[in-house]
Design goal:
Blueprint lengths: L3 E2 H11 L3 E6 L5 E7 L2 E9 L2 E4 H5 L7 E6 L2 H8 L7 H7 L4 H4 L8 E9 L8 E7 L2 E6 L6 E7 L1 E9 L2 E10 L4 E6 L6
Parallel strand pairs: 7-13
Antiparallel strand pairs: 1-6, 2-3, 2-6, 3-4, 4-5, 7-10, 8-9, 8-11, 11-12
């Protein structure tokens, strides 16, 4: 990959399956970075005088008219760096590159990153007010309410995670699972058993 504007670097990373980060840093404290694993956006960071923001919020602040430098890394290094700055909605990043996400979608056999769908097995009726949380190493990496069919989806990197189902502040179910990458659906019963 070569130096370029944010949109150019994003397009090149998606096209070539780049693993590493594209970085912008000026002479002051401003810094912006997007991390990719096998061409999939995995994390983002933006820092200025006010402090640092990460993930989907950082994507909204990335300078688009600045030159970015690609810094290749191993998949393990990129995954470790992205762990605290996950991007759950890559469509926001694709908007910077003026491309449609359908053109950049990768097949589900790509290891390392993908979508996990948690499906609640509550019988015929889904209890209103439930929240699905995904935890990794003591940190929450995703939280969402299930849809009408009792499903919630999350963008994750390969690794071990814990799914917690909450009713208000009470945990009603807990399930640890190993995520190998790609697209995966896990059914979780009220007692925490995976099916």
């Amino acid at each position: 990959m070569k130096h370029g504007l944010l949109g150019e670097c994003i397009q090149e990373a998606l096209r070539t399956g780049f693993t590493g980060e594209i970085l912008y840093q000026d002479d002051t404290i401003e810094r912006a970075a997007v991390i990719f694993i096998s061409g999939e956006p995995a994390g983002a960071e933006y820092t200025d005088q006010a402090g640092s923001i990460f993930g989907d919020t950082a994507v909204l602040r990335l300078p688009i008219r600045s030159m970015y430098t690609p810094l290749p890394a191993t998949a393990g290094e990129a995954a470790e760096r992205a762990r605290r700055m996950r991007i759950f909605h890559p469509k926001r990043l694709y908007a910077h590159a003026t491309i449609k996400p359908e053109k950049t979608a990768r097949s589900s056999d790509q290891g390392g990153a993908g979508t996990v769908t948690i499906s609640l097995c509550e019988g015929r009726w889904i209890v209103p007010g439930l929240r699905v949380e995904i935890w990794s190493r003591g940190l929450i990496v995703g939280s969402d309410m299930p849809d009408q069919s009792g499903k919630a989806s999350f963008r994750l990197l390969e690794g071990e995670y814990e799914c917690r189902i909450r009713d208000g502040i009470r945990i009603v179910s807990r399930k640890t699972f190993q995520y190998p990458g790609g697209d995966l659906e896990i059914q979780v019963a009220e007692n925490g058993a995976a099916q």
